[in-house]
Amino acid sequence: MNPAAAPVLTSSVNDPGWVAYQSTVNNVGKCSGASCSFFFPSVPALHRVVVQHIGGIVGFNSVPTQVSVLIAEGGFLSAFFAPIPTRGLSSVFDQPVLFYVDSMGSVSVEVFLLGGAVFTGDSVSQFVTLTGYELDCSAAPCAAIAQ
Questions:
Q1: 7: in domain
Q2: Which of 70, 78, 94, 111 has the most CB atoms lying inside 10 A of its own CB?
Q3: Residue 130 lies in a domain
Q4: pTM
Q5: DSSP state of 65
Q6: Domain limits at 108?
Q7: Is the pLDDT of residue 127 over 70?
């Protein structure tokens, strides 16, 4: 029984210290060749970032046969293929992911083009955004991750 006058607390013990997380890296004018690296800031001390989504746009000089997106933090985390454009010279991707980065770790995203296309290195759009949430492990201890 859970009376309205004195309800039982139902919030999660993991909720204290949760903050929305979003970080964008703008590589406009910095990419050339067939790969482009996006380096995200380090996670602050006593925090954990849980990434739930990655989105971006990358532009190139000709239509590639494949656009690969790799996510790493010390080692390989995840990868997917971004859409090949049917018009224009850019690929827009929007992908759910799920991984975490602990205190002082940082994420890098690498976009690879196959089929002769290259990043132009000029003012063409090159953006990647990560979203999710950040846990303050000093407000509530961050649970160990099962291996």
A1: no
A2: 111
A3: yes
A4: 0.84
A5: S
A6: 20-136
A7: yes
